[in-house]
Design brief:
heterodimer; A: alpha/beta; Rossmann fold; 2 domains; seven-stranded mixed beta sheet; four-stranded antiparallel beta sheet; globular; B: mainly alpha; MetI-like fold; 0% strand; elongated
Amino acid sequence: MSRPFLSIENLTQTFPDGKGGQLTVFEKASFGIEKGEFVCILGHSGCGKSTIMNILAGLAEPSSGVVKMDGYEVSGPSLDRGVVFQNYSLLPWLSTLKNVTFGVRARYPDWPKAKVEEHARAYLAMVGLEGDTIHRKPSQLSGGMRQRVSIARAFANHPKLLLLDEPFGALDALTRGTIQDELLKIWGGTRQTVFMITHDIDEAILLADRILLMTNGPYARVAESVEITIPRPRSRTGIVEHPNYYAIRNHLVQFLGHRSKELAGRSDAPAAPPERVVIDRTAPGADPDPEAARRLRAVND
Amino acid sequence: MGPSLSVNQRAMVLSVAMLIVGLLVWEAAIPAQEAAGELTEYERLTGGGAPKAGVPPPSQVLAKAWEQLSDPFYDAGPNDKGIGIQIGYSIYRVLTGYVLAALVAIPAGFLIGMSQVAYKAFNPFIQVLRPISPLAWMPLALFVIQDSEASAIFVIFICSIWPMLINTAFGVAGVRSDWINVARTHELGSLRTAFAVILPAAAPTIITGMRISIGIAWLVIVAAEMLVGGTGIGYYVWNEWNNLDLTSVIFSILVIGVVGMLLDAAFGILQRAVAYAE
């Protein structure tokens, strides 16, 4: 069996619970991500999504288990794994441009100054930041613009794996939409491997090749891996027309609404990769879902 | 004064008005020296004809200031030097002690701030040493160093070190972990993290400490120079008091105030230069 590009094996995280005992946040999480894949992870607060992300970034150590990338065990942070944090994490004393060149200089220390700046400007332009804006300090930018800078900084470094920790969580719905489109555009050009945490089901369907679903903590597990059978390039308005969209969406809503609770809290669950779920209403011979047809009629009537 | 004047302009007009009124009240409050009338021989022998020492009116202080500032660097012996020379000595002592303190306090504060253990371990010592009046060190310094000049500099050193040390440690310890994580994910080494992330992040707090220190150093130098004598603005004040020249005393008090203000303003500019908004 060939190993995936990124493989997470039997990851377990426990924290002291403050009463002398141990609290297991998630247990024996195992999954893989292929090169060039865009994977989102969905789950309720407290299931350890952010902890998994920090472990992948090398900013935290798991209690047990390993993460391997390209066959090598991950230990400590690395420029090969770029991170976009939820709170942007821009350095407030540097201008927008300097925040990006900061990263580029760290990645390519041999590049001459002019090349570093040109590279940074190109990536800022890709997220729509040009002109005077790039000389402003982060405090003079809106939340959406700050997150664009953060995304440009991460992509400009060409990491092998890009980790996005709820990058749009603090943004309003309209801004969120535009930046999602920009993210899709820039990702379409680079085809980087992306692992992203989100709370937003529609966002996950729009962006991801595959969505990992986590059960509730403690003893959270990565229970399912849902493939998004909607062809690319996708657009916000286009995907809702696709026959698979509502079927996938319903599956995700049901999981988060009921089954994440039902499957939670089993410490004795065997270590198993997440169950692969493929929902495809377009495949020849796929049984039509009478339920879905009835609901659609009801809307149309 | 209508709405056409800005807040700053109105404040300036008020300041000037207060100054003029204050000076006029001061001038009017000083009783004129009574002209010496008929004096008995006894009065003449005991110096009764000489003008009595009293608080001088502002006009005399201004005349003194003009006289002193028009030739600030004359040197007519140990007890008669121009105000420029005296201030120069004081600034030299303050800056020497202060720079030495900064060279110790900022790196030490950095190391203490980076480690929670060091922070907690050093804290009790700092808390005990910090409230000691710097002049209390003077006898010990004179005995150990055996040089009054170096002792004065040591006193400046010991009084400027604490605010810088505490603020540097506090600023470094308070750098947001997000920014440290940015440095970590960009694989910056410890030295580059210190200079590219921690130093600019903590700079406003560090400069605040430096500003407090220079203020304290300038307060302390006057007292220290009164003790060690010889040169400096503090010695000048004490010397003029011994001469019963109150005009010079008042003039030098004003000079101390102006120099202190300029030192503080310089750090104010520095503080604005490193400030950032989150």
